[in-house]
Amino acid sequence: MRTIPRILIVEDEPAIAELIAVNLRHNGFQPVWAIDAETAQRELDEILPDVILLDWMLPGESGLALARKWRATARTKTVPILMLTARGDEADRVAGLDAGADDYIVKPFSPRELLARIRAVLRRRVPEASGGVVKMGELQLDADTHRVNLADKPLKVGPTEFKLLHYLMRHPERVHSRGALLDKVWGDHVYIEERTVDVHVKRLRESLGEAGNMIETVRGAGYRFTPTPSV
User: Fold this and answer.
1) Which segments of the chain are extended strands (E)?
2) Which of 55, 58, 66, 209 is in Cβ range 3.0-4.6 Å of 11 for a Cys bridge?
């Protein structure tokens, strides 16, 4: 088992990549640099990293396109992706998260903030302490095998969405504020904005298909999971 977390830096500006790499090395990480999409794919094909730091603006294929591709590929879909970009508008943040990024960091950023966010996504990869099977109607989640089925048909659910669904299914019929979900699902990752919860709920609903309406939006309050949603 690898003891030193491997971080893939996909960044076309050598000065930024080197600054990131130096800080990662000094803090117990193993950085690997890829200057473009082709190089990044070669690195991924050889050894899966623990975290990907992905620049949005790359020559050729963009970071946004790469995030979508890697999220749609079975081998890479669970690797945390932190999007690094100078695009700080809300619409850009939402686009990055919708593409599959687990977090979104606007340039310029401090090395301390970047390290905190990397550690946070690594903590979120640790399996939940509570296992077993949770079933609501025809929707079933198995925390031990990390599978979700609807009417005995397997569903593809991302790692963060899986944790969110697990928590909601274990606490049905309650209204959970965005802040409460951040605390319970994301833990002490203080940098994540509440807007991130909305993006992951949207993604989870899409993954659940016809069962997505079990997650109800309670205006001004948050979200509620109900096995028999109102029509």
Assistant:
1) 6-10, 30-34, 51-55, 81-85, 103-106, 133-136, 139-142, 147-150, 153-155, 175-176, 215-218, 222-225
2) 55
Distance CA 150, CA 224 (A): 19
Tokens of 90: 């809300």
Amino acid at residue number 68: R
pLDDT digit string (tens) for the chain, length 231 residues: 345 889 999 999 999 999 999 999 999 999 999 999 999 999 988 888 989 999 988 888 888 999 999 988 878 888 899 998 887 677 877 888 888 888 888 888 888 989 998 988 887 665 444 568 999 889 999 988 889 999 999 999 988 899 999 999 998 988 998 888 887 787 644 456 778 889 999 999 999 999 999 999 998 889 999 986 544
Written as one letter, the residue type at 209 is G
- Asked if 98 contacts 199 with a C-beta cutoff of 8 angstroms, the reply is yes
Single pTM value for the model: 0.56
DSSP β-bridge partners for residue 81: 52
CA distance 150 to 98: 23
DSSP per-residue codes, 28-78: T-EEEEESSHHHHHHHHHH---SEEEEESS-SSS-HHHHHHHHHTSTTTTT
Bridge partners (DSSP) listed for residue 148? 141, 155
